[in-house]
Amino acid sequence: MPYWLLDRLFDHQDQPKPRFAFQGTVNWIRALAILVETEEFSADSLRTHYAQQQRRQVNASGDTLAYESMLMSLHNTACLNALRPQTAMHYEVVRAGIIAWYYAVYYACKSMLAAASASDPQTHTKTARVWQSDIVNRGLAVGPFSYCLQDLTPQAVDARIGELRGRNSYDLNTRPTNLEQAHGAIFSYLKGTAEYQREEIEAEVKNSREFKQLGVDNFRTRAARELRDRELSGGLVNFMVQAFRYRGKANYRDSIYLSYGDDMSNYVSCFVADMTTVATNFATMVCHFVERRTERGTWQSFVADVRTNARFAIPINLDQI
After folding, report:
1. Most exposed residue of 43, 52, 235, 293, measured as fewest CB within 10 angstroms of its CB?
2. Does residue 39 or residue 6 have the better pLDDT?
3. What is the pLDDT of residues 13-36, one digit of tens each?
4. Residue 135 in 3-state DSSP?
């Protein structure tokens, strides 16, 4: 079948191949969904994981931000729940679903940060960095949400990915159906995001005065590599960096493949369901943490309030928190 628009895009711009773009998009979320539908994310396990968390010093504004952000996360998760039953129309809603998924995750992250340290980072990049320092480095993120790279030099990335992978050879080209394949896809996306971040950092280095003074146009010389690696060593990839990249990659940069071309309806309907599963479990994890960290009694007040006044169906069983 000829694809007139796709052919024009290939002729006039750097266009990703739809099959590979589609695989990367749906298989990463499929992998996350498999990994959060485990015992680690049961109410009992999450309660145990956060049982030793002490309430932080009372900070009314920090708690208010935590609960405001949690309401926003629950609303976006409820949006995904509302989109999910549209069995015949998943292609119509898939882009809206990606945006709802990202903001369900983003606001849950903001809620967790506010509960952890009353912090309120104002950009997505700063949010990802505080997520690393306040949550990931303290062992507070559960399951696939804890994987990260904190040194993006090529040798450091290869070493860490090799350590994580072991003998696991699966990647994003394989649609995961079990835990091993899901982990393989997760590690593949982690490495892919590191490569994407590295390319951005390298472009910034090439525009720097120091690099231009070297009189080179690549990183083959030792001086150029040292200059580049100095910046890469402070690079970061964690779940929030990946989620932000994913929002842009899946909804903007990869263009038309979620609305055009071969009929992949079965995969798209599963994709919308998987986004709902991932957002729900991420928000549930955060709820357990927020309940433990905020001022005593405020969680119960929040639950009673949203049950009375929220104008959407609450997507999480708050009785189990």
Report:
1. 52
2. 39
3. 776 677 778 888 999 999 999 999
4. coil
